[in-house]
Amino acid sequence: MRTIAVINQKGGVGKTTTTANLAAALALAGKRVCVIDLDPQAHASTHLGAEPDGTLPSLYDVLVSNKPLAEVRRSVGDNLSLIPSDINLAAAEVELAGIVGREVILREAMAADAREYDFVLMDCGPSLGVLTLNALAAADEVFIPLQPHFLALHGLSKLLETTALVARRINPKLVVSGVVVCLYDAATKLAQEVVTDLTGFLEKSRGANVPWANARVFGTKIRRNIKLAECPSFGQSVFAYAPKSSGAADYAALANEVLGVSAPQVIGPLKMTVEVPAAQTPAAEAPARQTTVEQVA
Question: CB 3.0-4.6 Å disulfide test: which of 13, 47, 128, 295 passes with 270?
Fold first, then answer.
């Protein structure tokens, strides 16, 4: 099982969009996937069709009342489960303040859960508080969605310092696997320069004793696409809402990278094909291509 925390202390960079749509792509590829929503705003829950109403149990009950994950989990699609959030989770930061071992409550709950998954993706809120620390303590890997602006690079250093601290004190196996560049516009020089700078920084860290020593910038860049902004309001992933959009193509390609396979090879009967302009090139100049989410034996 791969347990991945999707984090960035800056809001609006594509954390929830990446968590929900990458999870949906992996589920379409036949993988058993669970999304854990650690953001009190509950955007990942809404995105996956589980609008919080305050009446059903949520992750708050797991963290504060020791409720088992099995009593909170909901099925939101084939191969796709959700541990939802709601506004009550905002109180958890205060209510857990005096609890010994508050950073590992989620990890212990996951260890006690009998359900097996291929992937667990944790959507973290735009902060580095106790909820995000719970995610980092429970995770094996960190994915960092990043908007290609220079100010985003400044915030990245603080985020990496936090992962190093958690790795030293709470979770020695934690590693930063990669950076997902979101809201990408290949036509702008700024976006290309930021990606080049980020790649250079990660290359310089090779061999160092830090959690991001083997991190990479994912080759797939998530382009600006209005369909990605629209689909949460319908409680659907981009694959259900707009399967032929560039947003679907990009997250399909990202899932292929995460799975370690390369399109267009397909193993097994389940696949999803979308036809859009070639990734990372202006639409007017690019030939049509096909991107496939693959099912791996």
Answer: 295
Q: Per-residue pLDDT tens, the chain, 297 aa: give them.
A: 999 999 987 777 889 999 999 999 999 999 999 999 999 889 999 999 888 877 788 999 999 998 999 999 999 999 999 999 988 888 888 888 878 888 899 999 999 998 899 999 999 988 778 899 999 999 999 999 998 887 777 778 888 988 999 999 999 999 999 999 998 887 788 888 888 888 888 888 888 889 998 999 999 999 988 999 999 999 999 999 999 999 999 999 999 999 986 544 333 333 444 333 344 433 333 333 333 343 333
**Cβ 195 vs Cβ 146: under 8 Å:** no
Q: Which residue has the tokens 């809201």?
A: 183
241 contacts 233 by C-beta, under 8 angstroms: no
CATH of the domain at 149: 3.40.50.300
Range of the domain at 70: 2-293
Question: Number of folded domains in the chain?
Answer: 1
β partners of residue 3:
120
d(CA 225, CA 212): 29
**Residue 81's Cα: distance from chain center in Å?**
14
123 beta partners: 6, 37
For residue 146, give both structure tokens: 């990043």
Tally of CB atoms within 10 A around 284: 7
Residue 239 to residue 252: CA distance in whole angstroms? 9
